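batch_manifest entry 22 of 60
target: Cytochrome P450
source organism: Bimuria novae-zelandiae CBS 107.79
requested by: lab member K.T.
priority: normal
notes from requester: please return tokens only, no post-processing; we will run our own comparison against the previous entry in this batch. if the run fails, retry once and flag.
--- input ---
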Amino acid sequence: LWTLRDLGRNYAKAQSIGLPVTVRFVTPGGPLWMIFSPLVVRIATYLPFTKSFITKYRRGWECRERYRAHEEHGELFTICTPGGNYVKISNFDVADDILKRKDEFGRDLEAFAVLNIYGKNLATTEGKEWMRHRKVAAVTFTEKNAELVWGEALKEASQMLEYWRDRAKKPIRTLAQDTQIFSLNVLAAALFDRSYPFEGREESEAREQAIGANAKNGAFGYRESIATILHMIVPIMVFGEKKLRESWWLPKGWQKAGYAVANFRDYVTHLINEERVAIAQGATSSANLVTNLVRACEDESSGSLKTDNSTGSKAILTKDEIISDLFVFAFAGNDTTALTLAYILAELAAHPAMQDWISEEIRYYTRTEDVTRWDYAVCTKLKRCWAVMYETLRLSHPISQFVKNTGAEQRAITHKGRTHIVPSHTTVEINTPSLSSMPSHWGPESLEWNPKRFIKPVSGFEDEVLPPDTTPQFFPWAYNRLVCPGKRFSQAELVGALAALFRDHRVEPVPETGESMQDACRRVKRMSEDIEQRLLSEIREPTKIALRWYKATR
Ligand code: HEM
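--- output ---
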């Protein structure tokens, strides 16, 4: 009854906006629904007449429906739920207007509170506080750092390929978990300058058992800590670090998460102190993110080193804020890139001709198969690899919605000459899967995965033209003030991975019994675009994609 009362109230508010209204009986971001919806939806798949329920209620429906929901309800419409109203936007001008009015359509800080494990940071602040973090982030992600990422991505991807060819269980069904290990290792190098050899999940479990798994030490301490934190972020938020560590009655894995939080803090604190001493001694250092972040803060301070947590008069970030920002870089930078790489590889497996198309270009710019000799300058030359990355993000993006909130006041939105007043505390979501698939903008074949749409062929590789990576009509990394600080980082990582994997090798789906290769490709394409939203949007059943890597013959 309570739910129905809230739904009734919200319906009245939704109608006042003057946009078409559609009702959902559960709140998509409600914690209970987040936990139980996969189970509820799975049960529904076994029942008759549930197709429409599954289409609307399975989390991440926006990624599967793409522009079709807006075709049915209009470019702007309101979803009314018991927990609040959601205005969905699929119009470039309105989206642009909302993104520009950052102070009016701010972040839903409550939804982001989960990232405050180490205190407030770039992703969980607004206004002046956000500007302070943002200013430091802007000088932290340097081209030198992207170069470091490029080198590590090449190395890790070559090792991952070796694993897939020689050591992994065949056929390979671990695409999603392997790309996560890849991305975690690249992140370790970029953040801390620590290089880890690629190893499959089973290999690392065997190694852990051999050395006696302990979250507090071991050569892989940092990497395991961050992986554990990312995996257990919800229990960490609910119970807190101390309770997780001290509650014997909680599952062992949860206790381990408590130690992982402390472990990451100790590790980073140690590195920050080391860096501050290096600065005091005038030593030059590497371009990793810890170094860059600490140096950016020290440059702004009076020069006096602070090993305590005081802000002083000039230092821009305290030590805790530096730790929290580094954590959020790891959080924002790991799964986004890992999931994107999984999408890319699945799409490429389903489109063999595109593998040849990018390989041709990679071979043109790399004269040797020794990846350690591939200069960072090669990265921006591989336009076809960039096009593959763009096209995949266009159709399958790990962050499907730009979620904004009207905050304490009502806000006006103008659409096609009509002004709509959106009440206070209403969520406004820019629906990118719809914007990036509308046939009116992308053409009648908007749902086809075709990277060539991003390349203007002229004559020869050197003259091919690639559009910018962010415009108001295509913004996988957001744009203007909100642009992702890790944009270059992720581009170097993804293009590096593609170059190392596809120069001399190809991947193909392993057909099921009685299935032709063509049908297997179609199935893999379908599965790679069957997306479900967990924390981010990801392939719903990645283990059902079976792959095989082989050396290309020429
Ligand atoms: C394919 C990979 C990636 C994609 C598609 C991506 C996309 C985005 C987008 C769209 C936003 C804006 C979100 C919003 O305003 O609601 C964002 C923000 C952010 N991204 Fe990325 N990102 C990627 C990789 C990375 C990496 C590798 C890092 C860091 C190592 C990173 C760090 C961040 C941070 C810290 C923010 C928040 C910025 C702020 O609040 O000012 N991202 N990203």
